[in-house]
Amino acid sequence: MRVLGIETSCDETGVAIYDSEAGLLGDALYSQVAVHAEYGGVVPELASRDHVRKLLPLVKEVLQQADMQADAIDAVAYTAGPGLIGALMVGASTGRAMALAWGVPAIGVHHMEGHLLAPMLEEHPPAFPFVALLVSGGHTQLVQVDGIGEYTLLGESLDDAAGEAFDKAAKMIGLNYPGGPEVARLAEQGDRSRFRFPRPMTDRPGLDFSFSGLKTFTLNTSNDLRVDGVLAEKDRCDIAAAFEDAVVDTLAIKCRRALQQTGFKQLIIAGGVSANQRLRERLEEMVKKERAALFYARPRFCTDNGAMIAYAGCQRLMAGQSSDLSIQCQPRWPM
Ligand code: KG4
Ligand code: ZN
């Protein structure tokens, strides 16, 4: 089965074609970062408008990449939530309408299921069952994955998501949106031993997270160091390093617990924060000690993209599921 996948839940327009036999045949991505940068974050209305502009040209582009006509597509998958409602509606209504015109089924996909399955697009994918750490701008969750659609929530953030915390900490030390990659870049030059930030909720049992305290810690530390309102470059790097280490350590401690609790020997990480190099290194060390294995997608497929939606949609369609003509998008949608 050949599925065209569409992702428009936030600030990336992604379109891809996934073939259940041949794998990924085309993949196009347009990032709106430049559109939102001057506002310091995503402006929902501008996001919707930009998706409208870019979506159909990207559909044409992936068909060209795959060297095929629309009649070679067996189904269309689109992100139906969670996300920005206007942005979701663009992808959903365009995708559903294309499927109707082409006379093929369509399916609304859960954005986080897309992220969760993204490591399956790689050459050596994990086999079910496994533990998944989903770390994006909107979610931080540990999930027991027994198969497609068989997801048990083991723990989640009680306040900010890990990516959200990265973005807010970045703002506090004067970095641009999107903050996560910028914090990581500065942290590389930072002295990791100068400050020790807390590892929230690691001293009590359970698999839930809380990142809002780290935000306050970042704010207080940076305020203490400002001279005439200005934070020196070295201080920014050292704070970035301390913040990154605190988040990474906390995630690693909970992942180890989740492996021990389930007895599983495979951990996958997915979502934008899974692109973080320090997190990958720290988790590689941890799984080695646990005699387990770590899986993740290439950086392009960690952040939002069309390939993960095409893949997840393909699995759902092959399981006999599809969506009807009344398009339903859900800005909030538990997986
Ligand atoms: O999965 P994603 O692209 O969008 C959502 O579904 O939210 O995740 C975006 C988040 C942002 O908060 C961004 O700052 C963070 O992922 N992120 C990173 C890195 N790359 C992206 N955080 C830390 N280190 C990175 N290298
Ligand atoms: Zn995402």
Keywords:
alpha/beta; 44% helix; 335 residues; 5-stranded mixed sheet; binds 5'-O-[(R)-(carboxyoxy)(hydroxy)phosphoryl]adenosine; 19% strand; binds zinc ion
Write the layout of secondary structure elements.
Layout: E1 2-7, E2 12-19, E3 23-31, H1 33-37, H2 44-65, E4 75-81, H3 85-102, E5 106-110, H4 111-117, E6 130-135, E7 140-147, E8 150-156, H5 162-172, H6 179-187, H7 212-225, H8 233-262, E9 266-270, H9 277-289, E10 293-296, H10 299-302, H11 306-318
Parallel strand pairs: 1-4, 4-5, 6-9, 9-10
Antiparallel strand pairs: 1-2, 2-3, 6-7, 7-8
Bound molecules: 5'-O-[(R)-(carboxyoxy)(hydroxy)phosphoryl]adenosine and zinc ion.
Bound compounds, please?
Answer: 5'-O-[(R)-(carboxyoxy)(hydroxy)phosphoryl]adenosine, zinc ion
Q: Unreliable runs, pLDDT <50, ≥5 residues?
A: none
The CA-CA distance between the termini, in Å, is: 24 Å
The radius of gyration computed from the alpha-carbon positions, rounded to a whole number of angstroms, is 20 Å
Overall pLDDT score: 97
Gross geometry: globular
Helix amount, in percent? 40-55%
> What does the largest sheet look like?
5 strands, mixed
Count the E strands: 10
Describe the structure.
By secondary structure, this protein is an alpha/beta fold. Helix content is 44%, strand content 19%. The chain has helices spanning 33-37, 44-65, 85-102, 111-117, 162-172, 179-187, 212-225, 233-262, 277-289, 299-302, 306-318; strands at residues 2-7, 12-19, 23-31, 75-81, 106-110, 130-135, 140-147, 150-156, 266-270, 293-296. The structure holds 5'-O-[(R)-(carboxyoxy)(hydroxy)phosphoryl]adenosine (KG4) and zinc ion. The site of 5'-O-[(R)-(carboxyoxy)(hydroxy)phosphoryl]adenosine has 21 residues, from helix 5 and helix 6. Residues 10, 115, 136-138, 163-164, 166-167, 178-181, 184, 271-273, 275-276, 303-304 line the site of 5'-O-[(R)-(carboxyoxy)(hydroxy)phosphoryl]adenosine (KG4). It catalyses: L-threonylcarbamoyladenylate + adenosine(37) in tRNA = N(6)-L-threonylcarbamoyladenosine(37) in tRNA + AMP + H(+). Its cofactor is Fe(2+).
